[in-house]
């Protein structure tokens, strides 16, 4: 076998043998490619890599080194090329990149590769877009040959119930905002599956950094409807103490970092958290959620690159819902979505149907396993559609037509799709549906009414938590404010306790 | 009264306040800061013949009492420069807390200023590591690491390059605790960055961006003036339960040498230090500028003007009480910093003191600062708030 020959050669290899080594790489690669294609037929994990034809991630990943180290690196990389597990998961280039007529290996520190006589640029896109992993069609029917994940009746019902509750919370909270009870709200319509299915595939130990359209993860982890309502009202029981706009949830108990409005800032932070988990040898990963718009931010680039270089256990879950407020993806990027960006950073990636609960569940479970066991980042691009407006401050009919929205809302609804599947399993019927819808509605309304009656946080909270303790200048400003309130009590809202 | 080393060699005087001819002759003496320059790797080398042993010292006679070891006169001390003192502080921080990490651009090999020398060898490549060249990534990553109960000591190679990380510092680090209702915090975060003039740094290796960060509730800004101060303040910053931006005067990395206590000690944050007592005027500054201000004080004393010199040390939250007490005694205030005068932190001090000491003031508050221009290369000697500019302002205030 080429593999064993190369390994024995590596033991005695000198610089002059590099050309021979390169030739063996070619042989090993073509050999391994055959095996890879065999594997692909038997495993749902393996997708042909169609993007580039110029070298694998393995070679790019070798990074900088001095020329003295280059041979060592070459050996190391060769062993990676020949290792069945690495090969299987990394994907292979369409063809070996070594030019048969010129076997000399190029060893610039920036890249280890071979020469070619062809003046050939990498095309801006692959011949075909990256396919989307899907298990169940729009009618809830499994696709032929689909390997469905293990999901028992209890888990399936739980996932569906949470999706319905999330949908219900959105409807009622949105209306509450329209009635002036909340100052602001953002819905997750169209993205219920991404919220709940990914949460169900994670472990409660995994730390979550979200953007603002992922309350379902918190809901799945047990954050109560009343807690959601407390935050939206900014009342005295809001864990965030009434300091942030509605939907900026956070819960230490549920390992869900408090949301901030700036886009993509959570991404490099999640990488830092993942590094902490890795150094603590914890059986957990960090999970960073973001949207298609966030992929244009510098922090996205920073996070992907850091995660790759520092080999951190992290899942980057992109909700590519087609719209960043009014900006369509065509004005956002010209790449084949987000999934292809993974390879640019040396990160594994997969594109998933974000409205297919089973596909999401399956992909996240597998990605999580890889992230923790191999301490590596994984990108998951979930294709979906933002059915609702960006927020209650937005009217999306100004930039997209109603027919489009209705199509996604009525025909492609992820909640409906999953319902059809569990119905087909005999795990759900019309009575269960009536029951969950009625219960969810009653629970959300009760939670909202209760939260709405609570007092606002005390005025002292204004100055607390800027630092771990109150510095003298803030004590002074606090005292000044008290005096002003005493002089002009009618200038201030009556529902905020000030005494 | 604390003992203060006032000895300044002709080299230092020249470095801060001299003609271009003198500057030229100096260029061979002052070590370059560039990563392309040949770098000395240890303290010994840096204390070679070409760098004076007792030099730009505003020595730290008083060390904080709330430290682990008592820091009286019997405490073993070692003469070292500022980058070695930083290095020692990092060693101690890493030694005393296994959950502490040091990272940034080029830190693995010791850093372009040698502050992280030998750390990777001692503590391993997983605790001391290079990051990609991306400041927003460094700070974002550091926030996440700190939020998981670690001490993240991030290096930004030059303060001039901190701006890509501005959003992470201002919108994220500073608000992390507040916005979560104290459920989460990134108090283990310390961002180190060399700041200020260095003689040949031009626009992008000379800036003093401290005032931007002083406008941000939720972070602390600390700037040391000497090796012993740097060690104690850095250890305090690293262990402070709030995110700290720690600016290091790069001009002094090699030039400032003093006796530094060997053990583990901290100097209190938000406490200014009166480093020279006087009765006629109060001078307030921080970092490398104190060396220049000290010279002006010495010159003024020859004309029987008694100056009180205060090192603010922490810029936010700052020790207003100490400055107020001093101005109430002297009746005059001068603030000096390298950063442009408009919107500089001197403006905040000036306004605060005017609010509190208005009737006691016998002259308008004076500001001797950088001009409102980008930091210039050839014109650096003109741009800088030099000794004679300060001396003139002292005299003007006293004779007002």
Helix-strand category of chain A: alpha/beta
- Please tell me the CATH architecture of the largest domain in chain A by its name: 3-Layer(aba) Sandwich
Instruction: Write down the overall geometry of chain A.
Output: globular
Beta-strand portion of chain B reads 15-25%
- Low-pLDDT runs of 5+ residues of chain B are 1-56, 61-70
For the sheet with most strands of chain B, the description reads: 7 strands, mixed
Low-confidence stretches of chain A: 1-19, 24-70, 77-99
CATH topology of the largest domain in chain A: Rossmann fold
Helix content range of chain B? 25-40%
Order of helices and strands of chain B: HHHEHEHEHEHHEHEHEHEEEHEEHEHEHH
Report the β-strand fraction of chain A as a percent range. 5-15%
Question: Helix- and strand-based class of chain B?
Answer: alpha/beta
- Put simply, the count of helices of chain B is 16
Order of helices and strands of chain A: HHHHHEEHHEHHHEHEEEHEHEHHHH
Q: Using the coordinates shown, work out and report the CATH topology of the largest domain in chain B.
A: Rossmann fold
- Biggest interface and residues each: A-B, 49 and 48 residues
Q: Nearest-angstrom radius of gyration of chain B?
A: 20 Å
Subunit structure (chain B): Heterotetramer of alpha and beta chains.
Domain Transketolase-like pyrimidine-binding (chain B): 80-255
Catalytic activity (chain B): N(6)-[(R)-lipoyl]-L-lysyl-[protein] + 3-methyl-2-oxobutanoate + H(+) = N(6)-[(R)-S(8)-2-methylpropanoyldihydrolipoyl]-L-lysyl-[protein] + CO2
Subcellular location (chain B): Mitochondrion matrix
